[in-house]
Design brief:
Distance between the termini of chain B: 25 Å
Distance between the termini of chain C: 27 Å
Chains: A mainly alpha (about 290), B mainly alpha (about 325), C alpha/beta (about 260)
Strand content of chain B: under 5%
Oligomer: heterotrimer
Number of strands of chain B: 0
Order of helices and strands of chain B: HHHHHHHHHHHHHHHH
């Protein structure tokens, strides 16, 4: 009984991390169909910003989190202005090639600047250890992560439902042509959403250090998980990303715990089967 | 005097003198670079793999990010059967081709059903799935340690695969050439025209009665078999197979080669492979991270500035020289 | 709901070339096809007119299988083709052209038409025989191009052809499939009036074995070539009749000011 709850909780926490990393990509993909394989490079950037601020400048960990968000958002704006916006109508292959190229470059740069060593987590002491509820150990950091993710989710949902910006996002995701016809500046909305999504990825990258570590290969390894969450959850759906992230997170952790021999093979199978059943993802538009 | 259709088609499919020059030039390593024959056979093998991806990407327009799966399956098949008594290289090739073709055919049903992101994800996922499977089935594949006990016999019972690489290069080169001829014939056949039709306008194809899904399944199966043969060649010429044959990096590298040389031009993958492998060999002293920085930059530059690949930037010249359209 | 009367010169005993029965389709709240029943007798030339957004192209998409109807039937001759995939319908003789050129930019005109012939002859799966050995198919393609005044441009890449030539190629590719029923979606769309005359003379010369339904906005063309006109508005059929009947019907004037180009 105990281990199951523990495994589920760990899986849920991991899923929350995946959600933070994925939600931005899901919404921007749903809106503009732009395949951005450099998305996790922004996450990696956020992680390294935190590392640098803590180790070199002595910042407290919590204060670095907004900076990780901002740095990733800012860099994404630069990429979008200079490069991405020329390719909105280009072929998928071109988008894949460009963004993989950017991912390669950022990985190489990170390796050059920070080396390929596994970075140690700059977690403050009050976030370490575990607490006991109902006789079960819960990692404090994981609780923190879940809290942050749920707070972000709440903010996202409220923004989407109740602000004008949120309305514009929903219209643009739903039907870009109609949104333009209604006078919505889709390009500006996309740029803002893109910045927001990349910022969240950066935040996720910073939060990920304690849970899964950070080295330059993060940008590609976690890209795979993010793509799985996005395609399973459905493009353009926050709810879809949330559910898919939890599903993948729990499957991965539970799989590795109970059947360690099969490794990550399970989630790829889950993804392929789910995609065959619903090619647009669980909550994607048809 | 207008050409007859027959003359036109013959002009499109005729061998160009430069093609002959190219293939004669592949014999040069024997004379000019005798100590580099191992590298030359690696290049030939990679070129064959690139050719297989060009078939589906350049001709049918299928973006696959997991093609290394078939390469790896071919490599492991050739390696594993050699451990169990089937040491003849040619038989090994045939068996590897048959198995990868079967798996390719099975997966082609998924590939032909999906487009866009779902297709990219499925091919990517398939690549990772096979990698993980090979890792997990270490009783069969040796897992992270690589396949042990590979025992490749002599070619025709006479020619041994040795460190000098002569047998390896002749073997790889001949297989590459033969399969190139097959691919060349395929692209110049009605089926090749249908594939180009799918790539040029997949919406129009059903409107002329084309069973696009069936066409895609066929080309995907053939492409898988060719990739499998390339992998088998690697296993046989080097007597090693490790998980690296299934890496995403390998799928990405061969995509880069097609970008370099231009996809859908038949020779693009071959030339791209040569450039890529030679450059990597020359720069192998450099940090691997630097290498991928430049590759990344290359991709960015090519996409933003040269829509048809580096050699494609000269594509007009290329096509004029080759005397044909894409 | 509009009942369709059979055309005056079709006997009750002859099966129509193409017929739809109570075809319905909605996208969410929007009904794009409302209870459409149409009959196209053999050898006839019918025109489908209506304002933009009336659902004319949608109807063609439904007939050819690009969209699945919510209810209703589509019959090609005697056969119910409602469940068939688009390529299967083409094989049975139902062929369409597109309003916007949907061609193969880098294929030459000859290659495009030859491809259509290959698919028709089930030869497109053959990968071991070289193209030049298919003399008959290539010659047939060339003849089709010549009959459409494209003979001189046969070897040029589609993207190098002028717009009007591409519209002709649209038709050539469709004709190569040897249709029994040809659905032309605004064949002269975007073609300047001087050139569209030529295009329509080509259509007029089409064999009487082929039954044609064409969407068109130019009323002069419609009155010249169509023996019967069907008027669609808002996804439904408003009325149908001879050119004489349609041109004098006040409802048509009200809904669709004649001769307006999109």
């Amino acid at each position: 009984m105990g281990p199951i709850i523990g495994v589920l909780f760990d899986g849920f926490a991991y899923g929350m991390l995946l959600f933070l990393l994925s939600v931005g990509l899901s919404v921007t993909l749903g809106m503009m169909n732009f395949v951005n394989l450099a998305h996790c490079a922004f996450a990696m950037l956020g992680g390294y910003v935190t590392i640098t601020l803590v180790n070199t400048f002595g910042w407290p960990f919590l204060a670095t989190l907004p900076m990780a968000f901002l740095a990733a958002a800012l860099v994404s704006v630069i990429f979008e202005r200079l490069l991405y916006r020329r390719l909105y109508r280009a072929s998928e292959l071109d988008q894949v090639l460009l963004t993989i190229g950017l991912a390669f470059m950022s990985i190489a740069t990170a390796a050059y600047v920070f080396g390929t060593i596994h970075q140690s987590a700059p977690t403050p002491s009050f976030l370490r250890g575990s607490v006991q509820y109902f006789g079960i150990n819960f990692g404090v950091y994981r609780l923190f992560l879940v809290a942050v993710a749920l707070a972000v989710t709440l903010v996202l949902v409220l923004t989407l439902e109740y602000t004008r910006f949120g309305q514009q996002v929903r219209a643009a995701v739903d039907n870009q042509r109609m949104a333009r016809g209604l006078g919505i500046n889709v390009d500006a909305t996309f740029a803002a959403t893109f910045a927001l999504g990349s910022g969240l990825a950066g935040l996720g990258g910073a939060l990920a250090i304690e849970m899964v570590g950070l080295d330059p290969s993060f940008a590609l390894i976690y890209l795979v998980y993010v793509l799985i969450v996005v395609s399973v959850g459905g493009l353009g759906s926050i709810l879809g990303s949330f559910i898919a992230a939890v599903l993948i997170g729990v499957s991965d952790i539970a799989g590795k715990y109970y059947v360690p021999e099969i490794g990550s093979f399970l989630i790829y199978l889950v993804m392929i089967v789910l995609l065959m059943w619903r090619p647009s993802g669980l909550f994607g538009k048809r | 005097m207008p050409m007859t259709p027959h003359d036109y088609l013959r002009a499109q499919t005729r061998w160009h003198p430069l093609e002959i020059v190219f293939w004669l030039a592949t014999l040069l390593p024997f004379v000019l670079f005798p100590s580099y024959l191992s590298l030359a056979s690696q290049i030939a093998i990679t070129a064959l793999f690139a050719l297989s991806l060009d078939l589906i990407l350049g001709y049918a327009g299928i973006v696959s990010l997991g093609h290394a799966a078939f390469f790896g399956i071919g490599a492991y098949t050739a390696g594993i059967i050699s451990k169990h008594g089937i040491t003849d290289p040619l038989i090994g090739l045939v068996i590897a081709a048959a198995l990868t073709a079967a798996i390719g055919f099975a997966t082609s049903f998924m590939v032909s059903r999906f487009k866009h992101l779902a297709l990219i994800m499925i091919t990517l996922g398939f690549g990772f799935l096979v990698h993980e499977l090979a890792n997990a089935m270490h009783w069969l594949t040796g897992g992270a340690d690589g396949l042990q006990g590979i025992n490749i016999g002599k070619l025709f019972g006479v020619f041994e695969f040795d460190l000098w690489g002569q047998t390896a290069y002749i073997y790889s080169l001949v297989v590459l050439f033969i399969l190139f001829l097959v691919v060349r014939r395929l692209t110049n056949s009605p089926f090749g025209l249908a594939l180009r039709g799918i790539r040029e306008n997949s919406v129009r194809m059903p409107a002329i009665g084309a069973p696009s899904a069936a066409h895609i399944r066929k080309v995907y199966t053939i492409s898988a078999a060719i990739a499998g043969i390339a992998g088998a060649l690697l296993a046989q010429t080097t007597s090693t197979v490790s998980l690296g044959v299934l890496d995403f990096q390998r799928s990405a590298d061969v995509l880069v080669m097609l970008v370099l040389g231009g996809a859908g031009l038949m020779y693009g993958g071959l030339i791209g492979a040569i450039i890529f492998m030679v450059a990597r060999d020359q720069f192998s002293g450099i940090n691997p991270q630097f290498w991928y920085f430049w590759i990344g930059l290359l991709l960015v530059v090519v996409v933003m500035l040269l829509p048809n690949g580096i050699l494609g930037g000269l594509s007009h010249l290329y096509r004029t020289v080759m005397g044909r359209r894409s | 709901m509009t009942e369709t009367a059979l055309a005056p010169n079709a006997s009750a005993a002859t099966t129509p070339a193409l017929a739809t029965r109570n075809l319905n389709k909605r996208f969410g709240q929007l009904a794009v096809a409302r209870d459409i029943s149409i009959t196209l007798p053999r050898g006839e030339r019918y025109a489908l007119i209506g304002p933009n957004g009336a659902g004319k192209t949608t109807l063609i998409n439904l007939m050819t299988g690009m969209i699945k109807p919510d209810s209703g039937q589509i019959l090609l001759g005697d056969t119910d083709i409602t469940q068939l995939r688009p390529e299967q319908r083409v094989k049975r003789g139902l062929v369409r052209t597109f309003q916007i050129n949907t061609l193969f930019p880098n294929l030459s005109a000859l290659e495009a038409v030859t491809l259509s012939i290959f698919e028709r002859n089930n030869e497109a799966g053959i990968w071991w025989k070289a193209l030049p050995s298919y003399r008959n198919d290539a010659d047939e393609a060339y003849e089709i191009l010549k009959s459409l005044r494209l003979g001189d441009h046969a070897y040029r890449a589609t993207r190098e052809l002028a717009y009007g030539q591409q519209r002709l190629l649209e038709i050539a590719v469709a004709l190569a499939a040897k249709p029994q029923v040809l659905l032309l979606d605004e064949p002269a769309a975007g073609v300047p009036p001087e050139e569209s005359a030529e295009l329509f003379s080509v259509i007029a010369e089409l064999s009487k074995d082929i039954s044609v339904l064409f969407i068109e906005h130019d009323m002069n063309v419609v009155f010249r070539f169509a023996s019967r006109i069907i008027v669609m508005v808002g996804g439904a059929i408003l009325l149908e009749g001879t050119p004489q009947e349609i041109s004098t019907d006040p409802r048509v004037r009200e809904v669709y000011l004649g001769g307006a180009h999109p």
